[in-house]
Every structure is written in structure tokens, then in C-alpha cells.
């Protein structure tokens, strides 16, 4: 094992964990003042609940030997997962380091979904939902792509989570937005950010942590990590500028919140491609993300689907575009197409991966939410929604004055 690689991946694991508090600020600033604390709590609890689930059975279901669909329970409670050996993954880092790096991905993915049902979900039902979702949705999809499952065997390319994290969470968010009742005031006064500086702080922390997300997925301190770092920054910058230009043309104002959202869209879209493309394709991917995600949010609003914090528009559509773009641009400026694989064949493989993830995530997420809805109840009462989640669910206000 290589000491530099171990140090790099440990640092990147910490960077990826920082993304979840970053998301808490980002989402917390986007919601109304009386829901800021409750929204932040969603991300904090993902850090607690998913960390335990991952150690006990989540990592095993994702990475232990099993079927082409899901892993087994050989690694339950990290049995046989060494902090010093690398027999499981055969990398230059210990298996337990690979486990904790992947844990950070598992933590932020369900936290992303929470933006779809912001200001409405019962806290107790949320805890049940994330436990079930990581077990039944995230771990299997992770296994399909990275753990020896059928999509990885097919040759699907997903360097750092475009399919596993972003399409998966984005489609789950769409299912949630359809199943949850709309927020009170949806279409009128609902959806105004209460704290723009908090949104920008959150976006900045996400951008910073994303270097661990993408460059860390090299799993080594090498040129692959350097390229992933460069293209990540390039795509984010391109999407930010694209989003601001579109918003400026449409509204005659350059939105601060829009700039932050655009940057996140670019980060999402480059994630699956970060290890396979160079800087110029990253620029194209970022511009495409700015356009596609902006349009998706507008269309969803016209359809009157209450995806409160635009999770599907940014993560679902950004992830889909990024996965397709990975097939279109792989090997341009960096990396290479696989042996005996044409570009069109790679795009088709990417489309199969996208379709399988969309179908599975949407159906299983919907089942989980509907079971909770008709047994334990999903949403808070309208009275509690008017009071805000901070008081009704947590008994304290984010702001005391």
C-alpha cells in the first residue's frame, strides 16, 4: 500500500463529509425562515443514521460478493474489512478506507432527496425513510455500478456518482414531489429563500467538498486525480456563468441564488465524467448543465410539481445529462474508450444505466413513501406546517430574534 494514496483518500473522505453540512446550509438558506433548523436537521441526521447503517449492513450490500443485483452480508458490521489489508478491493489503500470513503457518498445521497419534500415531512417518518432508502435503493444501485453488479459488468461509466448518487437521488426526489402534498402557498409565496448568504456559503462548501468527491474517486494521489480536480472546477464555473446569463436575459437581473444553483448543476453533471474527459469537454458539459437544468426547473414548475428545492431539476437532469455526456466525450482530452467499444455503443450502455436507475429508484422510492404514508403518515399537519418544522418537529427556532 502507498502512504500518499492513503493520506489523499483520507483527506478526500473528510472533504466529501463536509459536503453534507454544506448541503445543510444550501438547503437551509433556500427554505423559509421557520423551517431553516428542520431542514438543516435532515442533513445532520443523514450523517448519523447512514453512518451506522453503512457500517452494519449498507457497505456489505453494496460491495460484498453476492448476485449481480445486490451484495451479500459477508461484511456485516465490517467483518473481514481490514484497516491495514487490501484483499477485498486490491487497491493501494486499505479496504476500510475504501469503506469510509464510500460511506460519505452514501450519507449525502439521501440528504439530497430532502430538498424535494422540504417544509412538509414528519421527522420520525424521515428517519424511517432514509434507513429504508439507503438499504433498498442506494446500496443495490451502488452494487450495480461499483460493487460487481450488472451495470459495471456491462461497461457503464460512472467515475464518481452521476448514476449512483445524482440520478438515483434526483429520481427519488421526483417520486417524493409527486407523492407529497404541495406546500401551503405553493405557486405564490412558497419557495422564497430566506437567507441568500447561507445559500452561497452552502454552495461554496459543496464546491470545495466536490474536489474530494471527484478527484478522490481516483483512489490514488495521481494524474487521474489531478484531471478530475481540473475538470470539476471547469464544469462548475461554466454552468454558473451559463445559469446567470440565462437568468439575466429572462429577468433582467443576475440572481445570486441562481449563480449558486448553476454551480451545483455543473458539479453534478461532471461527476460521472470526471475521470474520462479533459477540460474542453468539461466546459461543454458545464454549459449543457446550465441550460438543461434551468429548463427542467421551469418545466417542472409549469407542471405544478412541488419539488421544493429543485432536486430533480439539478441532480436528476444534471445527472442524466452528465451520464450521457460521459459516453459522448469519453477519451476527448483525457482517458480513452474501452477496447472494441464504439462511441455509439458506449452511449447506448450509458442510456441503459440511466434507464435502469430511473426505473428502480422511482418505483422502490414510491413504494417506501406510500407504505409510510398509509401506515405512519408522511407529512406534518397543515397547522404544524404553518408553525414551521423548527417549532413543530424540534421545539426550537433557528433564529431567536
User: Residue ranges: pLDDT <50 for 5 or more in a row?
Assistant: none
Q: Residue-averaged pLDDT, rounded? A: 96
User: Major sheet: size, sense and barrel closure?
Assistant: none
- SS-based class: mainly alpha
Order of helices and strands: HHHHHHHHHHHHHH
What's the β-strand tally? 0
Helix content: 55-70%
CATH domain topology? Ammonium transporter fold
Question: What is the general shape?
Answer: globular
CATH superfamily: Ammonium transporter AmtB like domains
Task: Report the radius of gyration as a whole number of Å.
Answer: 20 Å
Q: Tell me the CATH architecture.
A: Orthogonal Bundle
Strand content: under 5%
Count of discrete domains: 1
Number of helical segments?
Answer: 14
CATH class: Mainly Alpha
Distance between the termini: 54 Å
In short:
This protein is 68% helix and 0% strand.
Keywords:
mainly alpha, Ammonium transporter fold, 401 residues, 68% helix
Protein architecture, described:
With 401 residues, the chain is mostly helical. It has one domain: Ammonium transporter fold, CATH 1.10.3430.10. The protein is built from 14 helices and no strands. The chain has helices at residues 3-30, 36-63, 95-113, 123-146, 150-154, 162-179, 196-215, 223-251, 256-270, 279-302, 311-329, 343-375, 382-387, 389-394. Helix 4 runs antiparallel to helix 6 (162-179). The radius of gyration is 20 Å and the shape is globular.
